[in-house]
Amino acid sequence: MKGWTANDIPDQIGRTAVVTGANSGIGYITARELARHGAQVVLACRSEARGTEAAERMRAQAPGADVRVAPLDLADLKSVRAFAAEHKGDRLDLLINNAGVMALPYRRTADGFEMQFGVNHLGHFALTGLLLPKLLEAGPGARVVSVSSFMHMLGTVDPRDLNMERKYGRWAAYARSKSANLLFVHELSRRLRTTGAQLTAAAAHPGYASTNLQTAAPKMEGRRGTQRFMEIGNRFFAQSPDNGALPTLYAATAPDVHQDDFFGPPFGMWRGTPTRSARAKWTRDDKAGRGLWAASERLTGVRYDALAG
């Protein structure tokens, strides 16, 4: 994978992908590059207007790109179910669980979950489960890629307080949600191996990429000093969104991707072309993975009956 770039993406003609949060940042780049290489791409976006604008930009940047927009609000399980029902007849080869929120003040989703855990993990857990039959039908080459963060190393999931009701810390909640992403991929991979399914579950992280993820929360709260600090970091220390998307694209398309792989930049986990990434030991804990899975099924009401075990 030395020096791997978007130009190395294999031909994606005949494949269909869903990318959550595809209207900006690394989600936008991921969707654009999959479409540039021939995939049909569904841009699953909370704002249909921003999704439509993103689709127009993609078509301008990648002439002939086959992209379409569909509304999806991961903070509302009703929206997740509606999205899955709308696409139940479609082919699906790639599901890129990219959308996320970071370091928000305490707030809850429409279903009462802490927002970062609810959006970053539970929403994607439900979406993957509801789309699983289509992914299994696609056969060899089908993949689920979840986007985590190197910041997962700052906090493991506490099964006794998934919604952080005892004590909330915005960065601790973010770290836990990103650990949950990796635990989900670990347990999903275990179940796929057990059943012999021809579907690969992998994860990726962008390192430190310049996107609006860093500035969204301070802008929302009017914390101009923090917003400016994040903007300076993005400008001088972060890598571009194009480079930040490469680990996700590698996990989604490269031929040497295996169950439970995790890709990211090599230099301090911040910058560089994709490589297999270090991860916290708790994200490979079978007991923790099973526990989070059971809790996620209970909280979302979505069961992975095809992968029971």
UniProtKB/TrEMBL annotation:
It comes from the Bacteria. One of its GO terms (molecular function) is oxidoreductase activity. Keywords: Oxidoreductase. The lineage of its organism: Bacteria, Bacillati, Actinomycetota, Actinomycetes, Kitasatosporales. SUPFAM superfamilies: NAD(P)-binding Rossmann-fold domains. InterPro entries: NAD(P)-bd_dom_sf, SDR_fam. This is Putative oxidoreductase. The keyword Oxidoreductase applies. It holds the Pfam family adh_short. Belongs to the short-chain dehydrogenases/reductases (SDR) family.
